[in-house]
Each structure stands twice: as C-alpha cells, then as structure tokens.
Design a protein that fits this description.
- There is one protein chain.
- The protein is α/β, with parallel strands linked by helices.
- The chain has a single domain, classed as Spore Coat Polysaccharide Biosynthesis Protein SpsA, Chain A, CATH 3.90.550.
- The protein has ten helices and eleven strands.
- The strands form three sheets. It has a seven-stranded mixed beta sheet with strand order 3-2-1-4-9-6-10.
- Helix 8 crosses helix 9.
- It is globular and about 60 Å long.
C-alpha cells in the first residue's frame, strides 16, 4: 500500500474513533417539563434556594428531582436552583431544555479542591470529587444566598418544599436535617478513631449526644457557615483521614458527623425517607420507614433509573418513574400514563 494511502487510512480510522468517543460522551435527550406557575398568595413568598449537583451519571436523577420539587410547590416560580458541576457548559443546556422558565445558575466545582483529600471508600461512587461539593456551597454560591436547601440527585420530593424551607434554625444552628438516633453512631468510624486519645474528643462537648444524619437533605445557614469557617473544619478531618490515620470508611458523610452531630436542628423524618437504594454493597430493595412521606431518597447502591432500565426494579422505584424526563421515541408526552 502506498504511504499516502496508508496515512489516509490511519487518519480515517482516527476520525472514526473520535466520532465514536464523542458519541459515547453525549448526554441523553430529555423532554421539556410543563411550565409551573405561582398560585394565589405567592406575591409575598420568599425565594427558596435549592442546591444540587450535575454530572453524567446522575443527571437523569437531578432533573427528576427538580421536576418533583416544582410539581409539588405552591410557589414554584419563587424557587431558585443552584447547580454545581465540574463542567457547567456541558450540563447547562440539559437543564434549560427541560425547564425553559426555571430560575437557575450552574457554578463550576473545581475537583482539585478535594482530589488530594479523598481516600477510598466502600463504594466507588462515593469517591468522586463532586460528592464532596456540598462542603463548598458557602464558598461557591454568591454571598447573597444566605440560606440553602441541599438535595442529593437520587431523590424526589412529594410535598411542598416551602415546609422544609420554613425550618427554624434559630438561635444559632448551622444546619438542619432528620436525625436517626437509633443508628449505631460508633459504626461510622474505625477502631483506630475510637482508640485514639484525641480524635473522639470534639464529640464529647456537643449540646446533645451525637446522632447519625444523612447529608443528602440539609437546610444550611450559609451566613453562619461562612462566619464559622466550617469548610475548613470539614477539610481538617479529611486531611487526618488521608495523611494521618484511617478513621472512617464512608465517603463525605463522616466529616459532617464529626463537625455537626449533636449540633443539628432536627427535622421530621418524613423529609428524608432514605436508604431506598439499599446498602452500599448489594443495593437490595428496601421498604419505607414507618410514618408519613414528604421526600423519597434512593441513597445506597441501587438507583431507580438503572433498575428500571435493567427491567429489575424494586417496588418503590415505581414512585420515581413519573418524574423521569428521559426522552424515548415511543413516549414523548410527559405524564402520559400517570
């Protein structure tokens, strides 16, 4: 084969490979959600700020979460969304296409902020830098955002989020979340942690005995967070874990427990019916906790969109499906079968 022909063939192959790679990195297409408008009495409604993350693996879940919030809100036009992403330009069009009238911003989260502080966890997804973005909300969001609700990307809200926003953080709480004091708090840290003469010390001086809380749903006072330097306090525990001693096994949760457990303003459990994704290893099906439900959270390994696509959903995954905006050729009408 002549050299020119060989070069041409190689270039053709490289171009084809480039197109295949680009195609593999394309985001799925999503449908446009209905427009949600404020009802009577919303003129004096406060602006509710909600923060979430955006990435390729969880984008479908994030959009479903946004739709669920808007669908059940009494004043949806009074809600402002703040998204954190490592590549904002990649994800902004997906949000704008599905929610043309949504008030939102997408901010860049620099993964280098945490890359040197992350240690291996029980599940690879928990080791991704964006999983730690919630630590930096007070630094990334504008100072004009004084309070925010943080939501994970694997949940749906089935109640008016204004009720959660109304949580009273006075006089000096930094964050509010449902607490689970029946959980074995000691199991979230290693024997190395508990045997150390210094590490457990900060837990002893709390207002109440420390309890587990799930960081996928939090109401956060960003003014108090900034004033108290809480980003650095969380980072300091991550630095100990990375450089000094392995004191926990579970991603970004333990630093929050070490800084805030026993100081959290309790919220009704209805606002985080979590664990629906099963455990962090097998992702087994789970039932709801006893009591009313305002928010369903598929924390754990099993995500509803993956189980639905695989044809092996858990029973409760059917409650997530109506909020799925993924476009399918044979189903373009939102809520057509609801």
């Amino acid at each position: 084969m002549p050299l020119s022909a060989l070069v041409a063939a190689v270039l053709l192959l490289l171009a084809a490979s480039g197109r295949a790679l680009a195609a593999s990195q394309e985001l799925p297409l999503f449908r446009e959600a209905p427009a949600f408008r404020n009802g009577p009495g919303c003129a004096a409604a406060p602006t509710i700020h909600i923060a979430m993350t955006l990435d390729a693996a969880y984008l479908r879940g994030s959009l479903a979460g946004v739709l669920s919030v808007l669908r059940h809100a009494s004043c949806p036009e009074s809600i402002a969304f703040h998204f954190l992403a490592t590549r904002p330009r990649r994800f902004r069009p997906a949000v704008a296409t599905s929610f043309p009238s949504l008030a939102f911003n997408v901010y860049r989260f620099d993964p280098d902020l945490v890359r040197g502080r992350i240690s291996s966890s029980v599940r690879r997804a928990l080791d991704q830098p964006l999983n730690y973005a919630r630590i930096y909300l007070a630094d990334i969001l504008p100072s004009s955002v004084r309070r925010v609700i943080y939501f994970d990307s694997d949940l749906v809200v089935v109640d008016d989020v204004a009720r959660l926003w109304a949580t009273d953080l006075s006089p000096d709480h930094i964050l509010a979340a449902p607490e689970y004091c029946h959980a074995n708090f000691t199991s979230y840290f290693t024997d190395r942690f508990w045997s150390d003469p210094v590490f457990p010390g900060p837990l002893a001086g709390r207002r109440r005995p420390p309890c587990y809380f799930n960081t996928g749903v939090m109401v956060m006072d960003l003014d108090r967070w900034r004033a108290g330097g809480y980003t650095r306090k969380l980072e300091s525990w991550m630095d100990i874990q990375k450089r000094e001693a392995r004191i926990y096994e579970l991603g970004s949760l333990p630093p929050f427990l070490l800084v805030f457990a026993g100081e959290v303003k309790g919220v009704d459990h209805r606002w985080n019916q979590h664990g629906l994704g099963g455990d962090n290893v097998k992702g087994l099906c789970r039932d709801l906790h006893p009591g009313p439900v305002s928010l369903l959270h598929w924390s754990g390994k099993g995500k509803p969109w993956l189980r639905l696509d695989a044809g092996s959903p858990c029973p409760l995954d059917a409650l997530w499906a109506p909020y799925d905006l993924l476009r399918r050729d044979d189903r373009d009408d939102l809520f057509a079968d609801v």
